[in-house]
Amino acid sequence: MSMPFYVSPEQLMKDRADFARKGIARGRxxxxxxxxxxxxxxxxxxxxxxxxxxxxxxxIAFAAVGRYNEFENLRIAGVRLADLxxxxxxxxxxxxxxxxxxxxxxxxxxxxxxGEKPYEVEIFVAEVxxxxxxxxxxxxxxxxxxxxxxxxxxxxxDADSVASYLQEHFTPGLDLNGALRLAVTALGHTExxxxxxxxxxxxxAVLDRTRVLPRKFRRLRAEALEGMLA
Length: 230
Hints:
This protein is of the alpha+beta class. Helices cover 37% and strands 24% of the residues.
């Protein structure tokens, strides 16, 4: 009878983390920027059918990078959880913090399980408040860790270069056009080059606190983006 190979728990977790990080880095980055009237999501995504940014509930949005089928499963689960909680209790009981905690438990359980591979995803959960101080942005990594982000954040692809550019050029209280131009420039920035991303290759959405409707999420189409980026 042959003896199974022994792998220490530390090495196993390191291998699973390296596997997930490599998968996430192969995708394109997503940037999130707070502006005066809400929260802006920008991603380089030429596909018109497969969305990286989506609505979860009235004031809550979801953005993700990595394997599409995996983060789409997470998005659907989040929508169902939000609908159930809002229907069972009150719509005000559906919060970004609650959804982020639920996602953290799911991702952490999958990552630590030896029976399946870790999810190759990172996600943002954002909730727009009545004022900019009330906005909430949570970043969740493949292993279930949660970070509370402020002003701006980036994930996926060359996220370090994008985040570095945002840190250097972000100023509080930007209007939507200024925040959009900043995010698009950051997504095209690398350590050695600055490329221009056409409007048709962008996926852009906002949580707009000025909307009178309960649902604050709206997408910005390529026609509108061309004028805003001009």
